[in-house]
Amino acid sequence: MLRPYxxxxxxxxxxxxxxxxxxxxxxxxxxxxxxxxxxxFVERIAHVPPETVKINLHISTQxxxxxxxxxxxxxxxxxxxMARLTKREEFNKRLEExxxxxxxxxxxxxxxxxxxxxxxxxxxxx
Length: 126
What we know:
The protein is an all-alpha fold. Helices cover 63% and strands 0% of the residues. It contains five helices and no strands. The longest helix has 24 residues. The protein is extended.
């Protein structure tokens, strides 16, 4: 089921229910509706004994660690540090100028334009 998502943005909405990674989808509504839905979910969890919740959290965390989450976080922090510390001014100059002229949208356009269309992305020719 994950195959269609390789090279694309993260799956969301109905496909995540098919994959079993979420229990329900909350439609985009007002913030009050969203908070009400969240509180209903929290109230359901409150009816479960705290020990059971702790055990489930521990099992979930262990599963993520077995999949390499901790190592991924460590690698991410190392790569992020290298990326932040090794900026070349002349390379980023055109991106910063685009950001000053047109904001974030212009910055992203300037950054991503050389890579369009993505081979398997949403704008790819099929």
